Structure formats: structure tokens, C-alpha cells
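Why does residue order matter? Because the sequence determines the fold. Keep that principle in mind as you read this record.
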Amino acid sequence: MTGEPTVLIIGQLPDPHIDAVVRELKELGASPILFNRIRPEESGLTYWLEGGRADGDIVTEQGRIRLSELNAVWWRVKPFTLAEYGAEPIPVIEGFVEREWRSVLGSLNAFTPQAFWMNPRETDLVAREKPIQLRAAQRVGLAVPPTCISNVPEAVAVFVSEEAQFIYKPVTWYADGPGRFVFTSQVQLDEVRYGADEIQVAPGIFQRRIAKAYEVRATVVRESLFAVKIHSQETAGAELDWRRRQHQVSYSAHVLPDDVGERLLNLQEDLGLIYGAYDLVVTPEGEYVFLEVNPSGQWLWLELQTGAPISRAVAECLMRGAPQLDPSRIGGLADASF
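Structure:
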């Protein structure tokens, strides 16, 4: 390997997000190393522990690198197996192989203490939990929808009234095959009363439906914030959940109010994230309401439509490691144009 900074990227190939960041990393003078999570057998990964010391190496198409020489690691891992989608049973051996790789790759941070991680594994795993996200958003002063998270039908029935509209969404995700996900759906009180058995099976998120003027996806890369306005109310079928019409909805660059930008950055710090994709609703009265954050959310389609240089920001963050957030820059970030 050369003396250039080495950045390990762990993800599923092909991935246009990885391609975009790799191009930026090379322009910045880094040596990106790609570990294909879908075909791990095409790469080599070794840990060894001896005499109180631990190290290892990784072998990919880009060559061999000692783990102790890595400068940064980007954990760009998404669910991909049928087992993870829950679509159908898989052979015992395939499940065993998957668990073995999950355990070994999930331990990589213990063998790369010198490397900068985006996101740190320990905080990434916690920050993915939506109840934790909502509570953290409250702590930093962001508005959140009135929410009930429960598997108790009586509690949900008390929360869901006939005087307002309510929605349901899963706490994690549900899919019965690639690209076939359960989106946010409206729920009525009668459905709660007659669906008690289904509610008892697993907790769900029930929320008061918030009136929308439009929505915002705010992508935060350490101290850089890129906000995009989602014109969801102008597209049929996207009013409740814009992801149903992701490629039909229009997008435009957006400027967040300073106080909202500051609270998002505080939330990012509270959750311990380096990268986060935040979803917000803006009401007709102009109030910003936090919905959730995806620690590995997609951004490339927004970059292509608005020119937001998110891929560059990700690459620069991996190059320079974890700078300390300068509070004096928060206002400027909220006003930044791209």
C-alpha cells in the first residue's frame, strides 16, 4: 500500500453511494478499500491475538492492508439476505455462514482502535432504535408527534381517538421481499378495537398524524448540514409517506431556521452519530416536527436533484477523521447554500 490515507468501506456492491464516495476519496488522495458484504468469500479477513497484542489484515481486489494501518472505516451495511427480510426460511448452512460473518465483521472495531469510524458501531446500533431517537429529540428541544409505542390494545385504544387522525408504523421494518416494505399507514379507532390480537403480537408506533405543508430530509455529516425540501403534498400517493413515490416527488434545496439546525446538530451529538439522515415534517404553521433519523440513510438521489455535495462531505469526513464541532459555525451551516 502507499502512504495515502486508507479508508475501508464495508457494504453491498453494487452501490452507487459507495461509487460516488470512492470517486471523491480518490480525488482527495485516499486509497479506498472495498469489502463486498454480499460476497465476503471473495475477500480475506484475519484477526490474530498473541502476547497481549491484537491485529489482523484484510485482502480485497485493492490489495492487502494491515488492520492497524487503516485510517478510517465506513460501515455502509444494509440488510440483504432473505433471512434478514424475513421472506422465507433459509438452509441451516446459509444461516450459519451469515451469523459467522456478522459476528466477525461486527467485531472489527475492536481490532481497529486507531481508525475513525462512520458511524461508531456502538453508537450506531443504539441510535437505530426509534424510541431512543424520539426521546433524544425531546431532550434537545425538537417537537415530536404525540406518540404511543405499545403492544397493549387498551393503551393504544385510549391513545387513538375519533377526534383526530393517527398513523401506524413499525418500530423497526417489515418486508416480505426486496423492495416490498411496510410504509406508514393511517389507522382508525375501529381497527385498533378489532385488531387487538395483531397489536398484542409486537409493539408498534402509533402517532397523531401531523398536518404537512411539506417535508424535509436533513442530512448531517459531522458538522455539515444539508437540508432538502420534499414537496410531498404536491404528489398523489406521497401525502402520508413520500417514500411510496420517492422518484415522482420533487425536491429543492432548503434553508433550515437556525434554531432547528442547532437542535439537529445537538441531536446528532446526543446520539453519538457522525452521519445521519433526519426526516422532519413542516406544518402549515411553520413548525418543524421530528420523525426519525436513519444512521445509514440514502442521499444520492437528493444530491443529483439539488446539487447538495453530500458525497464530498462524506469523503472529506472519512479523510480527516472526527473534528470537534465548532458551535460558532451552527448558524452559518443553517444558512449555507449548495
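Residues 37 and 298 are 17 Å apart (CA to CA).
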